[in-house]
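This section describes the prediction task in plain terms. A model, or a person checking by hand, is given the sequence of a single protein chain and must write out its three-dimensional structure as a string of tokens. No templates, partner chains or ligands are provided. The sample shown here is typical of the held-out split.
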Amino acid sequence: MPRIRSLPLLILCLCALPLAAPAAQPDALSAGRAAYKAGDYATALVDFRIAARQGNVTAQTSLGVMHALGQGVPQDYGKALKWFHLAAVQNDAAAQSFLGSMYEHGTGAPRDYIKALKWFHLAALQGDADAQNGLGVLFEQGRGAPQDYAKALKWYHLAAQQGDADAQFNLGDLYDHGQGVPQDYAKALKWYRLAAQQGAAAAQFTLGSMYEQGEGAPQDYGKALKWIRLAAQQRNTAAQGSLGWMYEHGHGVAQDYVQAYKWIDLAQAGSQPNSAVYRDAVTTMASLAPMMTRAQIAQAQQEASAWSVAHRPGATKQTVP
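The expected answer:
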């Protein structure tokens, strides 16, 4: 499954974007950005609205972000869509990319892959990496247009070259499975590694699995353990189950049933009951239990519980342009 950011994850720090050259109220825009960075959302909203009504696209996009995240106002995807649209029709790439994401996910408007494709394409032509990746996903899945792996490959590659981790993962996946290109584990490994080095958990797990299986590189349990552990620490349940398996069998690490049970318990707790990860975890814990004492099982469960508390996902700080 290709990776694409949801709207909240897409609205990350845009502070590096250059300010549009507004026809009026540049002071209102600057004041709004200063207030926003100080956490004074009420003042930021007033200033952004002044600049936005004068047609400033950065202010309009900023208002879209604040309405989407509920900053200083109740969360309202409909109003976010309105502000993004105003900026998007003025050819603001960030707003076009956000608009594409909203139509793709059905956020603030009915899901519409044709509109998502339209807005992603406009932003992608301006070099927006998120939009290029989103466009690649739609072409890969055949949503809004006929399935076309060659076009998916093209847009993933453009975004991946800009350092977009999701696109790097998606490009690696195409090479891994030979979709639109001849299967090439070495190239898959290259792109997975680039995404993994940026902290993408799915890429870390997949990279570790390739080292474990000797695909694209010689089999290396040490490297497999490193990358799978990094993904497991990010609550990737498939990685947690795989890490438990490595402890169970002593691959790349000393055999340790307590650690094996702990990680597999975490995988089961974090996955959907009808998923393969859940079913595998239940089966593995049942096979591990007869080889462990009650005290060891209790220790593993206690460590899993403590890990869950210590690694609760925190809120991601997101900002306006």
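For orientation: The CA atoms of residues 13 and 115 lie 25 Å apart.
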